[in-house]
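Researcher: Please generate the 3D structure of the following complex. Treat every line as part of one assembly.
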Amino acid sequence: MLSIKGLNAWYGSSHVLQGVDIEVGEGEIVCLIGRNGAGKTTTLKSVMGLVDKTTGSVTFEGKELLGEPAHVRFHHGLAYVPEERRIVAGLDVRDNLRLGLLASRDKAREKELIAETAKIFPRLAERLDQTAITMSGGEQQMLAIARALISSPRLVMLDEPSEGIMPVLVDEMFELFRDLKGRGVTILLVEQNVELALGIADRAYVIDQGEIVHQATAAALLADAEIQERYCAV
Amino acid sequence: MNGLSLDLLGLQLFTGVALGALYILMAVGLSLIFGMLTVVNFAHGAFYMLGAYVGLWLMMHGANFWIALVVAPLAVAGVGLAVERVLIRPLYGRGIDYPLLLTFGLSYIIVELVRVAFGNTGYPVDTPEALQGAVDIGVGYFPLYRLFVIAATAVILAALWFFLEKTSFGLIIRAGARDPQIVRVLGVDVSRVWLIVFGLGTGIAALAGLLSAPLQGVIPEMGGPILAEAFVVVVVGGMGSLAGAAVAGLLVGIVVSMTSLFAPEMSRVAIFALMAIVLLIRPQGFFGRAGLMS
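Model: Done. Output below.
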């Protein structure tokens, strides 16, 4: 479904990704792991169109994405939940959710979709009129995910969703990812919590210094202490 | 109390509000454009002047004031759209000084072109017939046209508020001003939004220019002083804030009219003194967010 081939990315003169290859099949959860600074976030950003200089090929359902602006990639069915969550200050929870539908074909069904989303995210349902940035980190992360999902994307990319969040909420969140998979949503997940991520993933890629150094099924990688030690230990 | 009665102060207060109305119209555009595009639009005064001249030209060619009041802002908004699309867009991502210098230069070009077309000397503009005369507002007789300027500004402000707070496009503008990247990720073509905001801002500036014409006449240099005053209003009210522009615009207008009652030569100095005091006490302005420039 998503096919990344020979992807290079630069920040200024720094060559951050050096020929990354990743395949994500329809309905899969694929996990990208590696140390801080290995190139995980840059990979997701490059797929979404947020890195100025990229070469290689990124196709989504056969369509080449490189060269398309980010907002066009959204319309292909791609969603991205950035690490910093980027909840918009000054807006309440409902308006942050509405943002997720502004450009969507489903905009006319706004009320209905917000109600549906509130059912999936009960923590948000209670807080629809609250200023979003006054919520806890975990609740903000839920909101960022809900905002990305409300337009029913085909593939969701999540960057470090568990970072800085209470364990109870993390479990709730990963349960949700499993549900999403059950509903046919494809997920590309970047996660520091390797064990947790491999627990729900089908396959995993290990990235180091801008290159994919290893790929395996999640189960095999979970059992491979050496690889985990070598590339993922902090 | 001979000469300085309460009634006179009251009338002068209303004069200040009418003046403030023009400042507000200028400041909301500047503030919106800065908040969204991070463009300090030094051509805003030139668009104000252009609005007055396009209106004048229309009236010379048989249009009445009301038609001019609708058509001139639309025409200047069209110019604004072209300026953003062709001249400003290539400069995004290059730092705040590039569009600042570009619009600064552009303002000179527009003023010079108007001088070539209309000459260096100004024109008086008649107050439309329906708005001539004065009405008793309790404290004395106040020019009807100035009341109209105040009312027109209130209508524009209310419409802008509704647009920004109650419509989907307004939500895009509010979110995009704070985080354009997330708005792009959510599928919105932000560059189109910037284009529309720039056109909207220049159109409102043109409206202000034409509204000022019956009060002050038109000359090619008319945009200079009001641009400086509108910048003061934006800074005092807080960058990017509609409410800030409204409150600060009224305040600056009243300060000017009151100072000119007691010490006319000090009225422009008073504006900048007010700005200095506000900046010392509250650097982000009345309604501004701290750190917007960083």
